[in-house]
Every structure is written in structure tokens, then in C-alpha cells.
Amino acid sequence: MSAEIIDGRKVAELVRASVREDVDQWVAKGNRAPFLQVVLVGDDPASIVYTGTKTKACKDVGIDTNTLVLQDTISAKELKGIIKDFNQDDSVDGILVQSPLPSHIPLYDVIETIDFRKDVDGFHPMNVGRLSVDQPCFRSCTPAGVMELFKHYSIPVKSKHAVVVGASNIVGSPMAVMLSRENSSGKATTTICHKYTRDLTQHTINADILVVAAGQPHLIKAEMVKEGVVVIDVGINRVADETSEKGYRLVGDVDFESVRKKASWITPVPGGVGPMTVAMLMKNTLLAAKKSLYPE
Ligand code: NDP
Q1: Per-residue pLDDT for 248 more than 80?
Q2: Sign of the torsion angle spanned by Cα atoms 233, 184, 95, 63
Q3: Integer Cα distance of 94 and 27 in angstroms
Q4: Which of 259, 255, 221 is nearest to 237 (CA)?
Q5: The domain that contains 270 carries what CATH number?
Q6: What range defines the domain where residue 68 resides?
Q7: Among the atoms of ligand 1, which is closest to the Cα of residue 253?
Q8: Could you tell me which of 162, 269, 253 has the C-alpha nearest to residue 215?
Q9: Ligand 1 centre and the CA of 236: distance in Å?
Q10: For the chain, what percent of residues have pLDDT higher than 90?
Q11: Taking 90 as the threshold, does the pLDDT of residue 1 lie above it?
Q12: Helices (H), strands (E): how many in the chain?
């Protein structure tokens, strides 16, 4: 068997085209364009790249955006004050604070300061809580993107055994909640694994659907999965590669070449989940502008 490839670039472009169309219609009705306020603290090179990708995607779908760049010496109090001003500003629909933040700023203090109705990342406890009781909310973009991939490729989720490797607040945990709880698209029997899971293979080998978000290059090998498994590789890891101009290449958490021989479906890295994350952010920003989730 050789797995069918789940083409995240293609599906992300479809999502973006649909957002673009909706934004056009929204503006044609006399509304202003949706507006995403990005906040970047410090000069972490990866964060600069991520915020650049997001703002470029905004422009592509007709969403207005601005990135406020702050020095990494800013205090938590000052940063929270700035976010409170954006909360009050009716011209701001979505607020995104790029992580990581400098170590003296507690991330969750900052996330909880964002008005949950503008929390397009879906990280605020109000949105996380509503997700866990299957109520309308901003859903974390990466796992929401994975659910969109299942939908696009008509990959059944209901009653399957889903195993999620990784339990972070932004990927693994909301992924497990979506897979297990969502009435419309989930209802899988779900196992969630993390660093303290004793025998990872004992779980992964039983997965019908395996989502890996551990940040460990090639953690999942062919002998850890069963024939026909659907594999979603969220991981993005840099590994040294002297043959590449940059000196490194990107790999996932899954040993793609060996696992694809057993899987029925698999996402590549790059070109799998990554593009979906940004596309779902566009979708969330449009929802925020339309006040679809939290009507006034
Ligand atoms: P975190 O480091 O926040 O979380 C990693 C999770 O994996 C933790 O729950 C950790 O367990 C668990 N873990 C680590 N090692 C193992 C192991 N050997 N066995 C089982 N579980 C393990 O990472 P993120 O969730 O933020 O990201 C995960 C990966 O996904 C990264 O490579 C990241 O770059 C990528 N990513 C990709 C995105 C995309 O758009 N494609 C978006 C976001 C992230 P514990 O909880 O016990 O520490």
C-alpha cells in the first residue's frame, strides 16, 4: 500500500478562496473590510516569519491588518494595557499576539486579556471552554485545519479510534477535544498521549487516525502504526542538511517515507497541515468581523 497524499496547500487555497469571496460580499454590502491586529513582541526570527506569512495571507483575502512591533523589554502591564485598548477599538475585529513572549511576560495573563470575541487564535479560556462543551467558539487554527482536511477528503472520523500524540494547549489538547466531542465532525474515540505516556507504540498501533504534534523529528516509525491508518503530521522540525542551501530542511514528526507505505492517507511536511493553520486564521477573522459566533 502507498498512502494517498493529503494536499494541505490545495485545501488551504480553497478555504482562502471561499473567505475571499465572503469578504468581497461583506464589503459589497457596505461593511468595512475585516481587520486583524497582530502584536509582535521582540525580534525572534521565526516569529517575524510567521507574522509575515499571516499578514500576507490577510492581504490575499482582502482582510486589513497591522502588526504592532514592541520591544522585548515591555512589561506585562504595558502589553496588557495595549491589548485592552484594542479590545475597546471597534475597528479591530481580531487580535493575535504572536508567541513565544519574552520569559518575563506570562502568556496566559496576556491571552486572558484579549476580549474572547476577538480571540481569533482560539486560545482564550472562554473559547477553549466552549470548545469542550461543543458550543460555537473560535477554534484553535491548527486542529481546526486538520478537521477541515478530514471534511475535504471525506475521511470518516465518527466511531474511529483517534490517537493524538502531543497535548499542548494550542494543538494536541484542542485536537483531542475536536475529534472526540464535536457533534458535527468528531465523535471519535480518542486517546491523547504525551511525554509521560509509558508505551507510545501500544497506543499508536491501534489508531485508525493518528495525529502527531510532538515536535520530535521522525518520532513515529512504520512499526508503530497499523495498515490503513490515516496519518496527520503536524510537526515542523528543522534538521541539519548540508546538501541544502540553508543548511537545514524541514521534517515532520512522522517518518514519512516508511509510514506512507502502511497508511491509507498521510500529510506531507511541508505542504500538509501548515498552510491550513493560516487559512483557518483567515476564516476566524472573518467570523470575528461578522460577529457570527458572539452576536451583540
Ligand atoms: P509543544 O512543545 O507545546 O507540545 C508538544 C507536546 O508533545 C507536549 O504535549 C509533549 O508532552 C508532547 N511530546 C513531546 N515529546 C513526546 C514524545 N516523545 N512522546 C509523546 N509525546 C511527546 O509543541 P506544539 O504543540 O506547539 O507543536 C508541536 C509541533 O507542531 C511542533 O513541531 C510545532 O512546530 C508544530 N506546529 C505546527 C503547526 C502547523 O501549522 N503545522 C502549528 C503549531 C505547531 P508534555 O505535555 O508531557 O510535555
Answers
A1: yes
A2: positive
A3: 17
A4: 255
A5: 3.40.50.720
A6: 29-115
A7: 32
A8: 253
A9: 9
A10: 98
A11: no
A12: 10, 11
Report the C-alpha gap between 196 and 60 in whole angstroms.
Answer: 42
Same domain, 157 and 259: yes
Check whether residue 174 and residue 259 sit in a common domain.
Answer: yes
C-alpha 37 – ligand 1 centre gap (Å): 26
What is residue 296's predicted lDDT score, i.e. its pLDDT?
84
> Which residue is closest in CA terms to ligand 1's atom 21?
194
Residue 220 Cβ inside 6 Å of ligand 1? The answer reads no
Please give the number of the atom of ligand 1 that sits closest to the Cα of 215: 32
Which sequence positions are flagged as catalytic?
54, 98, 121
pLDDT in tens, 149-172: 999 999 999 999 999 999 999 999
Q: What is the pLDDT of residues 94-126, one digit of tens each?
A: 999 999 999 999 999 999 999 999 999 999 999
Q: CB of 214 closer than 6 A to ligand 1?
A: yes
Q: In angstroms, what is the span from residue 296 Cα to ligand 1's centroid?
A: 36
